[in-house]
Amino acid sequence: MQKKGISLIVLVITIIVMIILAATVVITLTNTGIIDRANEAVDKTDKQQVQNLAALAWAEAYTEGIRDPFMLEMEVKEALREQGVNVNDYDLTVDNTGINMKPDTLQKNEYNFYFDKEYVCERYYYGSLLTYSRVIFTEEKGMQIVSIITDERIEEGSSISAGDFMGNTYVKVDSLKYKTLYTGTGSLGAQCGFYVNSDGVYIEQTTIPGSVITYSDKKTDIASGGLVVTFSEDGKSFVFNGQTFVVAE
User: Fold this and answer.
1) pLDDT of the residue at 26
2) Which residues lie closer than 8 Å to 97 by C-beta, 6 or more apart?
3) Degrees, nearest 5: CA angle 243-247-249
4) CA-based, 20 to 30 A from 182: which of 36, 208, 233, 248?
5) Within a 13 Å sphere around the CA of 227, how many CA atoms are in the beta-carbon half?
6) Which tens digit of pLDDT belongs to each residue from 202-223?
7) Element (H or E) spanning 74, and its range?
8) Positive or negative, the Cα torsion across 92, 93, 94, 97?
9) Which helix (H) or strand (E) is 90 found in, with range?
10) Dist. CA 236–CA 106, nearest whole Å
11) Ramachandran area for residue 21 (φ above 0: left; ψ -120 to 50: alpha; else beta)
12) For residue 27, with 0-12 CB atoms within 10 Å meaning exposed, 13-18 middle and 19 or more buried, which class applies?
């Protein structure tokens, strides 16, 4: 009985000593910044992997003859999304010279929502067509809307009449060519453009100028009451034309 008692005491003391040693190691690592440096190394590795994927997507699009910055950006971002990358985590600039990328964070602006972040609506009806839509508010360019038709493929050579966010036609195409950007001016002076990629997917961008948008607490007023976008309390979603858009995180 005495030997068992001594063994139990030794076991308890050993466990206590191990706990103290483990706590000491954690405190030491924290104070020396090793954990922080390890986390930074992981972030840098993730960024490099994403940058490599973006560069590959850019090179493929450029090789296919795409030169327009909007078209290049769409090809790169869609390729990243297919790999499970959240593009809102990065400040990504794409043009016809290459890509530039740095990690980004979600930060509210003075109006309690987010500038330069994609608000996404995955089931937005563009007329009768099911569309994947993204909206970005920028201080410099106003409001950018990107729409991708997800339930229909468009044949090359088709006749297309493209309408803006107000339903007004901004360009007509008699014989569509793939990977060709078609542009026009829409309602409120918006700059509109669309192209159809080699898979027949219709991708459109509309930029409403900042000069026709005013901001207030949790609201944007486009063209003095013509269109009002109301944001949620946390600024991570808004309602536009009866559809709810949510920040992609």
Assistant:
1) 58
2) none
3) 140
4) 248
5) 16
6) 999 999 999 999 999 899 998 8
7) helix 69-82
8) negative
9) strand 90-95
10) 10
11) alpha
12) exposed
Q: Helices 69-82 and 34-63, interaxial angle, to 10°?
A: 130
Distances (CA, A) of 37 to 105, 146, 154, 234: 19, 38, 50, 32
Host H or E run for residue 28: helix 2-32
Query: Which residue type, as a one-letter code, is found at position 200?
Result: G
Specify the DSSP class assigned to residue 155.
Answer: P
Q: Assign residue 43 a region: left if phi > 0, alpha if psi is -120 to 50, beta otherwise?
A: alpha
Tokens, residue 108: 């509210």
Alpha-carbon dihedral of residues 115, 94, 241, 232, nearest 10 degrees?
Answer: -30
pLDDT above 60 (res 169): yes
Query: Which H, E and C letters describe 30-64, residue by residue?
Result: HHHCHHHHHHHHHHHHHHHHHHHHHHHHHHHHHHC
The torsion angles phi and psi of 70, rounded to 5 degrees, stand at -65, -45
pTM of the model: 0.72
Q: How many CB atoms lie within 10 A of CB 140?
A: 7
CA-wise closest residue to 125 among 248, 240, 205, 246: 240
Tell me the CA distances in angstroms from 218 to 88, 115, 223, 236, 241, one per residue in order.
20, 12, 17, 10, 16
